[in-house]
Amino acid sequence: MSERVRLIDDPVLRKVCTPVDFPTDHHFMVGLLETMNETMKASNGIGLAANQIGQSLRVFILKKGDSYQEYINPEIVSKENLVTFETEACLSIPGTYGMTKRYKRVSLTWVDKNGIKNEGTFEDMEAFAIQHELDHLNGKLYIDQFSPLLRKMTLKKHHKYLRGY
User: Fold this and answer.
1) Number of domains the chain is built from
2) Of 24-28, 60-64, 103-107, 116-120, where does mean pLDDT reach its minimum?
3) Which residue out of 70, 88, 126, 133 is catalytically annotated?
4) Share in percent of the chain as helix, strand, coil (round to 5)
5) Is the pTM of this model over 0.85?
6) Residue 42 is part of a domain; what is its CATH number?
7) Which of 21, 26, 43, 111 has the most CB atoms less than 10 A away?
């Protein structure tokens, strides 16, 4: 069952998310991940953080084929090559996109739903998406990189988009 994606004005998006303690309720975690996946699919997203559906937990997912990869308690352990990413967008700020700075390559540690620790290195779009979702878990949005004027213009575009619905 999909949930409503929280929009920019929801305070849950500005809170630093709480780490998941293991062992955790496996049934709850599987249900949360399935709900996140359904919500991401319904919203045509490529990633979703738990706080975007109101759960202030350090969990995000990324689209992987017809399924998803879960990242619980993720941490970047290294990053390389800061570049300009021209088309960053967010399900919580629909109708907008912008130019941000992201690392082209990141190495990450995380835990899966079974509490097993993983590590991996990601490049390009995967690396950009991981950084975007990690920002969510830290109470940040991509527009926080913008100047005050650009942020104001972006929010105006977002509100105009919402009025069209």
Assistant:
1) 1
2) 24-28
3) 133
4) 35, 35, 30
5) yes
6) 3.90.45.10
7) 111
